[in-house]
Design brief:
This is Phosphoserine aminotransferase. Catalyzes the reversible conversion of 3-phosphohydroxypyruvate to phosphoserine and of 3-hydroxy-2-oxo-4-phosphonooxybutanoate to phosphohydroxythreonine. InterPro entries: Aminotrans_V_dom (IPR000192), Aminotrans_V_PyrdxlP_BS (IPR020578), Pser_aminoTfrase (IPR022278), PyrdxlP-dep_Trfase (IPR015424), PyrdxlP-dep_Trfase_major (IPR015421), PyrdxlP-dep_Trfase_small (IPR015422). Pathway: Amino-acid biosynthesis; L-serine biosynthesis; L-serine from 3-phospho-D-glycerate: step 2/3. By secondary structure, this protein is an alpha/beta fold. The chain has 2 domains: about 20-255, Type I PLP-dependent aspartate aminotransferase-like (Major domain) (Aspartate Aminotransferase, domain 2); about 260-360, Aspartate Aminotransferase, domain 1 (Alpha-Beta Complex). The protein has 10 helices and 14 strands. Strands 2-10-9-8-5-3-4 form a 7-stranded mixed beta sheet, with helices on both faces. The protein has a 3-stranded antiparallel beta sheet with strand order 11-12-14. A two-stranded parallel ribbon has the order 1-13. Helix 3 (about 75-90) runs parallel beside helix 4 and helix 8 runs parallel beside helix 10 (about 345-360). The longest helix is centred in the last third of the chain and has 21 residues, at about 260-280. The two termini are about 35 Å apart. It binds pyridoxal-5'-phosphate. Pyridoxal-5'-phosphate binds near residues 77, 78, 103, 173 and 197.
Length: about 350
């Protein structure tokens, strides 16, 4: 019927087939409206209900209280690198950044336009292959927030426990692991995520913001740079990316059908174990980039004995319908991105391919 490949691209990334099919089935006639969801006014009751339901489902799935607002923005996670400090950092104040990857570094660089940036830790010299221990974090005396990247997409590392910063709000870029595992949202003042890895297609950025933080935001900003605008107008100040939000809604419904975040976390652990086990049992043929206790459940990064073998691996995998495995240029080697929507069968196919490739080339 279909010729779907197993798609390991880091983002935009694979989406659940039932989600794509549902979108296809109602593409020209959304919920008996006689119109595509793309053609409906964002001011209509029908659209606003859809958007509100998307926010409600996200809050239910993440078990977050009513003191948080879910906002729908554009500009990707990259705009949030600037928008966070624009709203909360001033020249006389300091924000702390935990630099565990190049997206984290970009976020810190953007903040320098607005105030003092204190790097509480930086693992760049080790090519970001690990998540630091709590004892390594050297916080400044009175930061307005502490920023971290929960999953380092390029390097394949992930914070498994978040640092304890007391009353200082954590701000997290969760672009590549939101909804992949349960976590306690309370220490977080703000969470942002571009949708195109774990939530849906590109075009919408989810921001989850705690009300007490909103009260502290700089009011003297252009209207589209203020979180307050999106809160006050229910993310409908201007035209939101309606189709992308609709797709996120479908993904969230699918996730609920899978049993929610706990269930998907368990499956993500099983999926990642399939691939990490092959790496660990390969006698050094496959070498993981990330240190073992920092390993990500979302992005598995590894090298082979030579770049020639790595190229051969990518070519042979592509022929088998295993797509998008080439690593990021700053790490080299291979990267398998196995977000929520990647099936157990896809990970099994990759693990089997890796064993076979080792047998033939080891
Ligand atoms: C992909 C990614 C980004 C960049 O997102 P854009 O939406 O393209 O701006 C930022 N942070 C992390 C952790 C990512 O994985």
């Amino acid at each position: 019927m279909y010729e779907r490949v197993y798609n390991f691209y880091p983002g935009p990334a694979t989406l659940p087939l039932p989600v794509l099919e549902a979108a296809r089935d109602e593409l020209v006639n959304f919920q008996s409206s006689g119109m595509s969801v793309m053609e409906i006014s964002h001011r209509s009751k029908q659209y606003e209900a859809l958007q509100n339901d998307t926010a409600d489902r996200l809050k239910r799935l993440l078990k977050i209280g009513d003191n948080y607002k879910v906002l729908f923005l554009q500009g990707g996670a990259s705009l949030q690198f600037a928008m966070v400090p624009m709203n909360f950092l001033t020249p006389d104040k300091t924000a702390d950044y935990l630099v565990t990857g190049s997206f984290a570094e970009k976020a810190a660089d953007e903040a320098k336009y607005f105030g003092q940036v204190h790097t509480a830790v930086n693992t760049k010299e080790e090519n970001f292959r690990r998540i630091p221990d709590p004892a390594e974090l050297k916080f400044s005396p009175n930061p307005v927030y502490v920023h971290l990247t929960s999953n380092n997409t390029i390097y394949g590392t992930q914070w498994h426990t978040f640092p304890d910063c007391g009353d200082v709000p954590l701000v997290a870029d969760m672009s590549s692991d939101i909804l992949s595992r349960p976590f306690d949202v309370k220490p977080f003042g703000l969470i942002y995520a571009g949708a195109q890895k774990n939530l849906g297609p590109a075009g919408v950025t989810i921001v989850i913001i705690r009300e007490d933080l909103l009260a502290k935001a700089n009011p003297n900003l252009p209207v589209m740079y203020r979180y307050e605008t999106f809160v006050k107008h229910n993310s409908l100040y201007n035209t939101p990316p309606t189709f992308s939000i609709y797709m996120v809604w479908l993904v969230l419904k699918w996730l609920e059908e899978q049993g929610g975040v706990e269930a998907i976390h368990k499956r993500n652990q099983e999926k990642a174990a399939l691939i990490y086990d092959v790496i660990d049992q390969s006698g050094g043929f496959y070498r993981g980039h990330a240190e073992k206790n920092s390993r990500s459940l979302m992005n598995v990064t590894f090298r082979l004995p030579s770049t020639e073998l790595e190229e051969k691996f990518v070519r042979a995998a592509t022929e088998e319908g295993l797509i998008g495995l080439k690593g990021h240029r700053s790490v080299g080697g291979l990267r398998a991105s196995i977000y929520n929507a990647m099936s157990y069968e896809g990970c099994k196919a990759l693990a089997d391919f890796m064993k076979d490739f080792l047998a033939k080339n080891g």
